[in-house]
Amino acid sequence: MKTADFYYDLPEELIAQTPIEPRDSSRMLVMDRKSGALQHKHFYDITDYLHEGDCLILNDSRVLPARIYGTKDETGANVEFLLLRHIESKRWETLAKPGKKAKPGTRFSFGDGLMKATVADVTDDGNRIVDFECEGNFYEALDKLGQMPLPPYIHEKLKDKERYQTVYSRELGSAAAPTAGLHFTDGLLQKIKAKGVKIGFVTLHVGLGTFRPVKVDDVTKHHMHSEHYELPKMTADLINETKKNGGRVISVGTTSCRTLESVAKKEGCICASEGWTDIFIYPGFEFKVLDGLVTNFHLPESTLIMLVSAFAGFDNVMNAYKTAVEEKYRFFSFGDSMIIL
Length: 341
Prior knowledge:
By secondary structure, the protein is α/β, with parallel strands linked by helices. It has helices at residues 138-145, 186-194, 233-244, 254-267, 303-312, 314-326, and strands at 27-31, 38-42, 55-59, 61-63, 67-72, 78-88, 91-97, 107-110, 115-122, 128-134, 171-174, 198-204, 227-231, 249-252, 273-277, 292-296, 337-340. The strands form three sheets. A nine-stranded mixed beta sheet has the order 2-1-17-16-14-3-12-13-15.
């Protein structure tokens, strides 16, 4: 299967630049994955498609305000750091721009000295290993200094940082939002629970690799980035109970999906598990856990559209995307949603 097979033509004006208000008023394309049949709804209609005894699995990862701007101590030159991965203590793997200014041993200041940084090393792919210094709590300092690491296709400034967080986010660590969950409101979650649908949480910290293009022609030759996940016992028990009672396990987002299928593959069952996953799901993949998927519309030729195609069928998905373009749905992180059942 070729990467080019997953291309579709998207007019630039359909790339959503700002989140819609309220969150659950976004449009929702409903797909029957067996027949490929489509319906046009709104996200607040999701309760019509969930049944008593089903469970929704949400990713509770919280996005770090990971983009910080500072100056090089020696020259005063401007620099931008993007925190990618926590290593230990106040040491992070970081993307530095411009990289030539961030050689090992170089020191930088952020926020008039609120935070300092020293480059310790350079990774094989050019990222910087950086040791940060600040008074008190690192995350509190980062919250004062940092900006949300919005994807490169969003050009509008985000007025409210919380709009790039899900309402249930709690575990700090993502470099990008698990965007399928952005459509939920607290009120909608309460309606879903009142219908007898159980809700469970996993954590998968989204890396910037989620935006990395597939650069090989043959899909099977692509190597996925690695992301840290945790599936707690409470959620594992909920999934097993749901399956046992004939209910459906519906994943909110590709991150939740990758967590569940990674654990099933690694452990041979659904049980408490924590670790790193570089699972790559593309057509031909055999799903062991998923019965339904809530997702946004993804970039052409991306690993995410490949995952959705694996679950719902290549022809069904490419037809759905063609329809969504024709119907002028809003695309990508702040865009509209799909539910596939």
